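User: Is it possible to get a 3D structure for a protein together with its bound compound? The compound here is N-(5'-phosphopyridoxyl)-D-alanine. I've pasted both below.
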Amino acid sequence: MNKSGLVYQNGAFISPQEAKVSIFDRGFLYGDSIYEVTLTYKGKPFLVEEHLDRLWHSADGIGLSIQMKREELTRIIHEGARKLGLERQYIRIIITRGIGDLGLDPALGEEQTTLILFKELPALDTALYEKGVTLFTSEVLRNPKKSMDPSVKSGNYLNNVLAIKQAREAGAYDAVMLNAKGYVTESTSANIWMVLGESIITPPLEAGLLGGITRQKVMELGKAQGFDIKEQNFTVDTLKSANEVFITSSTREVLPVTQVDNQVIGLGVPGPKTKELHKHYKTFILNLN
Ligand code: PDD
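Assistant: Yes, that's possible. Here is the predicted structure of the complex:
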């Protein structure tokens, strides 16, 4: 077994090097696909039900009826993680509308392609959590909900690819993506939060963003701890005036942001509420295992 990774494809577990997708696959041709990313803690897949709920939401969003039974997918996710056997794994589930003759009509897609990639996930980079990361406001907008709805985790990530390209060229870790109204939505692959006075605020789903599973958990845990957590629209100017900023995602948990564009956030070090929320999130993870 290749310890660095494993792929489930068409009913078999194979190495990542053996896994191949046809040039006629609509995922490759048009980004006509959906996906999910989760990870393992102590070798166990994390929040599988929540990720599969979102996968089915994404499928609805592109009018795709997932051919594989949910129980079967669940079973394979657990089996793959067990087979690879590493404590900390990245798990990516991809479903495409399948192989078909060239043409945009989704009816051309025949049997769906279902792939699950399991690979080693490096430990969190402690330096990033001690120092915080920088964000750069990209000119590339997040799509309006009536375009390719950002709440759908689809294979269409080119806006986000272009946004992170701009951010990296500006020397930042990630981008702040705005919507057409000028409000903050999220970063290219994580949700954005700020601490303003006593309130902890993240943009509402209506702003056009992915309903992050970590976002949801942090919201629940924070509320249970008595934090004043709100979903509200805000501009990047308000973000820059915040006492603390952080981003959340499955693979990065709660990551402090200490600079947005040229503005240092708060005291320029990870803030106390950010650290406290991360601590509660870590406790939640520990209690699951
Ligand atoms: N990204 N926003 C976007 C656009 C994302 O792609 C992601 C996840 C998130 C955070 O969602 P969650 O908390 O459920 O991980 C927010 C994954 C990790 C990725 O594409 O690798």
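The chain has a mean pLDDT of 97. The helical segments are 26-30, 48-61, 70-84, 126-131, 158-169, 213-224, 236-240, 272-288.
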